[in-house]
Amino acid sequence: MDLLIITGMSGAGKHTAFKILEDIGYNCVDNLPIPLFRSFASLASNSPNNDKVAVGIDVRSRTPISKLENILDELEGDGKKVQILFLDADDDTLVKRFKEERRTPPLADGGRTIDAIHRERDEMAFLKKRADYIVDTSHLLVRDLRAELTKIFEEGTNYKNLNITILSFGFKYGIPTDADLVFDVRFLPNPYYVDSLRHKTGNDQEIVDYVMNSDVSHKFIDKLTDLITFLIPEYIKEGKNELVICIGCTGGRHRSVTVARELYHALAKHDGDYGLRIEHRDIDKG
């Protein structure tokens, strides 16, 4: 039997996650009182018709969420494996969602929403640390969350707790608001000043050849790759689950796209504990 705890920050999408898991065959029970969880796990494991069970446990319970830690330790000691899905989102996103839905966090007690979020984050820290899967929904649409959970729980895809996005952009259009690391590549050879290359992009081989036809370009890619591969394990140990690496040039069409692609290919060669994708924000702008 697969027993899954769905938990995480209030406002991070647990209700939506339950609907998705029901659609892919899980029997779901939400807001189970913590003192009942041990008995529930025993009953579920002895029921032949409950091969997939998801249980929602979070700070809504009147019992302090910290009591769950001892129960999980006891179940693991008895050889019962309980997986944990932790849904998270950044503070700004959570505040925005509560305001849009005209709701207050469970721990608000009449105070400010942001203070309640900080308190909840502290109380939930041990569960996030124990989680098998951490999904940050800050920038996910419902269809994106469905795709993520389907990959994990239906298709059996090996899940990576750190997802890296390499994003090219143009400084003239502003630095991406969700950037974690920003690198300026405006010092590299610029194809914009070559009439035959100006209309092309960093996805065209002619641009790649022009930008990379320099010792400085190759040295920069090597040093950047070394830096990022050094940082990734440290971010994973710190508990970070999303890393946005932004590569910027003036317009976001030539040099930044080329360097983003080179970095993507370099990181893809490493068998690291992370997911990897690439985006070009401004490649189609004039």
Automatic annotation (TrEMBL):
Residues 1-154 form the RapZ-like N-terminal domain. SUPFAM superfamilies: P-loop containing nucleoside triphosphate hydrolases. ATP binds at G8, M9, S10, G11, A12, G13, K14, H15. GTP binds at D58, V59, R60, S61. The keyword Nucleotide-binding applies. Residues 163-284 form the RapZ C-terminal domain. InterPro entries: P-loop_NTPase (IPR027417), RapZ-like (IPR005337), RapZ-like_N (IPR053930), RapZ_C (IPR053931). Keywords: ATP-binding, GTP-binding, Nucleotide-binding. It comes from the Bacteria. GO terms for molecular function: ATP binding; GTP binding. HAMAP family: RapZ_like. This is RNase adapter RapZ. It comes from Candidatus Weimeria bifida.
